[in-house]
Amino acid sequence: MMFDFKFADIGEGIHEGVLLKWFVKEGDIIKEGDSLFLVETDKVNAEIPSPVGGKINKLFAEVGDTIHVGNTVVIIDDGSGDNKVESKQEPLSEDEKGAGVVGEIEVSSEVIESSDEGKEEEKEARSKALATPVARKLAKDLGIDINLVKGTGAAGRVMKEDIHGFKEDKGLEKSKEVKKTNIFAQSGENTLLRPEIKREEIKVYGEVERVPISRIRKTISENMVLSKSIIPHTSVMDDIDVTELVKLRTEQKEMAKGKGISLTYMPFIMRALSIVLKEFPVFNSSFDDIKDEIIYKRYYNIGIATDTPDGLVVPVLKEVDNKGVLEIARELEGIVERARNKTISLEELYGGTFTITNFGALGSSYGVPVIKYPEVAILGIGKIDKKPVVLNDEIVIKSMMPISLSIDHRIIDGGDAGRFLLRLKELLSNPMLLLLS
Amino acid sequence: MTLLNNIGALRHALDSEMARDSSVIVYGEDVGYEGGVFRATVGLQEKYGKDRCFDTPLSEAAIVGSAVGAAINGLKPVVEIQFSGFVLPALNQILAHAARMRNRSRGKFNLPMVIRMPYGGGIRALEHHSESLEAIFSHIPGLKVVIPSTPYDTKGLLLSAIRDPDPVIFMEPKKIYRAFKQEVPEEDYTVPIGKAKIVKKGEDITVVAWGALVREAQKAIDEVEKEGISVELIDLRTISPIDKETIIESVKRTGRFLVVHEAVKSFGTGAELISIVNEKAFLHLEAPPTRLTGFDITVPLPKGEHHFMIEPRQIAKKIKEVVEF
Question: What CATH number has the domain bearing residue B35?
Answer without folding.
Answer: 3.40.50.970
